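Tokens in:
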């Protein structure tokens, strides 16, 4: 929020009165003015991985998946048309903390790319302005401190297992208790809404009466251990070509030579987890992920709906077991009305709407449309923003709220004018996307998707009318050539305008085999 200066003028009292009236009737100040200077407010950013906007009840979802988020939204700015420029974790969250599009920050591949020291992160800026900074995230190469997420962070800690929300909550509570008398910037991330979906007992059947569904693994114990016997021993080893794509032929041969077919649980733990090899742990994770996905028949509507009920239950569990308690803790510590809270996601999830499940390979609504909720303490009612916004706008908006200068590198825009309800041209006429050789441009009326790497399952060019076809099912590219060509021109113009901040080309460590490297390039994950 920019400070308003008052010049000396013969009619200064008239202008002072006019200024006072403007402040009183400005939407941001309609209820009351902030009780303290803007840059004295604490900040809490809540990173929820893989959260679709349309699966939150405050975004109109038919299930009550998010009671605590909904309650927060009732006194927040809710951005109804917010989109991510990329649909897998590493580059998406990096775009949020730098306000740079992925092709500019260049941090695209896990275990390889790192953020340039020429780029300044949100935590570095707030630390320079006296904030105590903290990050609670997973022990995962997608969000490691070395990649750039640790820059400017005083306390970089493991948030705890995404399935152990009690541990996550305790870690966050402990930090808040220790730092309640300081001005702080707290970030915390969760994979709870990411696959695999294992809602705990009291949540599992909240949205379904079905107790289990064939092909859907529902238990962490089964996922971690039984699949070795059921999947690897019986099925993956029979399809060596597929197995090689996941873990590589060399590693598969290591398992066979080591006698894996006869291992018991203790031997599996020792080989994958007690060897000191991070590569083995990641290979195990990759095998698990494949084993989880490939048994689910998403073409069966009943299976698909059941799977979504587990996804929704995970949202609800995180909402009730972490978000609600953290808000209560802020209130108990007398910090709630001194804290700006922002909730957002890196990408959504596909449930076979376009013949695909997961994320990272498409730029349709189910993976690009993500929530953005900004709660500022001096506003006591919800404000719904219908204009197009992007996650790269989060950093400049927050800095603007705190009256901190926005760095010149920022490619996002401050949303303050939208929050002030100023009547002008849209802040964004278009929002953009790019992921694994696919690019997109979206206006309020149209979505254009270009398949630039020749993937056989995708058409080279797709155009959807969002008003008549909001689910993006009917490609009308050739029926609307004038619209398509204009959007293609704007997309090329945007791509050509992006500066690169990469200082060097990074290489994968030598211990990562070519099969894994190729998998990372194609999917963004191990």
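Residues out:
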């Amino acid at each position: 929020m920019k400070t308003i200066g008052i010049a000396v003028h013969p009619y200064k009292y008239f202008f002072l009165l006019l200024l006072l009236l403007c402040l009183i009737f400005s939407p941001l100040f309609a209820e009351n003015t902030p009780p303290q200077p803007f840059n004295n407010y604490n900040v809490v950013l809540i990173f929820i991985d893989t959260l679709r906007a349309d699966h939150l009840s405050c975004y109109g979802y038919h299930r009550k998946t998010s009671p605590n988020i909904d309650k927060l939204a009732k006194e927040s700015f809710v951005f109804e048309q917010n989109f991510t420029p990329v649909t897998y974790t590493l580059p998406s969250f990096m775009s949020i903390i730098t306000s740079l599009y992925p092709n500019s920050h260049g941090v695209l591949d896990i275990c390889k790319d790192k953020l340039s020291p020429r780029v300044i992160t949100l935590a570095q800026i707030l630390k320079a302005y006296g904030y105590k900074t903290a990050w609670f995230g997973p022990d995962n190469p997608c969000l490691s401190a070395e990649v750039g997420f640790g820059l400017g962070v005083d306390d970089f800690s493991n948030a705890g297992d995404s399935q152990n929300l009690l541990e996550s909550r305790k870690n966050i509570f402990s930090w808040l208790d220790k730092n309640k008398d300081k001005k702080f910037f707290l970030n915390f991330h969760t994979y709870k809404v990411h696959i695999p979906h294992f809602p705990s007992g009291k949540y599992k059947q909240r949205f379904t009466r079905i107790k289990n569904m064939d092909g859907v693994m529902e238990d962490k114990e089964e996922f971690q251990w039984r699949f070795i016997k059921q999947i690897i021993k019986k099925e993956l080893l029979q399809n060596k070509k597929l197995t090689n794509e996941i873990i590589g032929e060399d590693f598969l041969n290591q398992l066979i030579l080591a006698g894996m077919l006869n291992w018991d649980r203790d031997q599996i733990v020792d080989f994958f987890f007690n060897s000191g090899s991070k590569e083995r742990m990641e290979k195990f994770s990759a095998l698990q992920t494949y084993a989880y996905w490939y048994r689910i028949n998403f073409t069966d509507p009943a299976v698909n709906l059941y799977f979504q009920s587990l996804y929704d239950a995970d949202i609800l569990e995180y909402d009730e077991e972490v978000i609600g308690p953290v808000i209560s803790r802020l209130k108990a510590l007398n910090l709630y009305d001194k804290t700006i809270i922002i909730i957002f996601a890196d990408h959504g999830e596909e449930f076979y709407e376009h013949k695909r499940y997961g994320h990272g390979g498409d730029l349709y609504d189910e993976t690009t449309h993500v929530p953005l909720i900004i709660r500022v303490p001096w506003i006591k009612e919800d404000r719904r923003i219908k204009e197009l916004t992007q996650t790269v706008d989060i950093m400049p908006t927050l800095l603007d709220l705190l009256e901190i200068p926005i760095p010149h590198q920022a490619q996002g825009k401050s949303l303050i004018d939208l929050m002030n309800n100023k009547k002008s041209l849209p802040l964004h006429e278009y929002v953009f996307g790019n992921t694994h050789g696919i690019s997109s441009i979206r206006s309020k009326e149209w979505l254009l998707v270009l398949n630039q790497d020749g993937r056989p399952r995708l058409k080279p060019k797709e155009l959807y009318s969002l008003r008549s076809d909001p689910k993006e099912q009917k490609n009308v590219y050739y029926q609307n050539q004038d619209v398509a060509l204009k959007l293609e021109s704007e997309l090329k113009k945007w791509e050509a305008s992006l500066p690169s901040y990469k200082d060097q080309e990074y290489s994968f460590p030598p211990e990562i085999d070519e099969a894994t490297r190729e998998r990372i390039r194609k999917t963004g994950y191990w």
